[in-house]
UniProtKB/TrEMBL annotation:
Residue ranges occupied by any HTH tetR-type domain in the UniProt entry: 19-79
Pfam families linked: TetR_N (PF00440)
Signal sequence residues: none
Protein name (record): HTH tetR-type domain-containing protein
Gene Ontology molecular function, alphabetical: DNA-binding transcription factor activity; transcription cis-regulatory region binding
Alphabetical keyword list: DNA-binding, Transcription, Transcription regulation
Presence of the UniProt keyword DNA-binding in the record: yes
InterPro entries: Homeodomain-like_sf, HTH-type_TetR-like_transc_reg, HTH_TetR
DNA-binding region: 42-61
Gene3D superfamilies, alphabetized: Tetracycline Repressor, domain 2
Amino acid sequence: MTTTTVKRWTGRSLDARRAERREMLIAAGVRLYGTQGFHGTGVRAICREAGLTERYFYESFANGEELLLAAFNEVIQALLTQIVEADEPGKSAKHRVRRMLGAYYAALRAHPAAARVFLIEIVGVSPEIDDAIRQSMHDLSSPLFAALASDQNGHWRGDPLLRRGIEGGLLHIALDWGANNYIHSVDTVINAAWPLCLAATSRLDDEPDMSG
């Protein structure tokens, strides 16, 4: 362990040190899984990237799969925060949804390593992670469906199968965009995604176009 690392932990509680080491490993996981791939990245590589020994890896994670799930959850929380912060309650539903779609797609383009963890590396690793993917799609789409809601409590009462289809469509637009090196503008991607959201309700059919 380097002198710099020793100084980092001096005067800090055990729990604080463990929490910071865990965050360092998660950040390293996002970087390496998002550039080299999950299956091409071992524990030793993660530890080198984080500047920690393997002892500290196993202090927080049983294996690489656990770290991948933690990295995935970190990406999801960052995406959700940006989506929520982009919302403008009080504006039309169309304006709000387009704002949130823009935040979602812009964040993926701005952070391609994190986007790869979210879109590619996480798929098919384990049933537990597949469950996390399904939950994440629901969580990320919830602000959109709240904006499209027809009741005063912000609850969307439509067909759950339709919702799943819309969520999958938004995800596959992101996949194709990333696979083509994000060559399209964010506005172009929003325009492609918007009709999927419109399918969630007919309430917006007569609203003016606020995309400009």
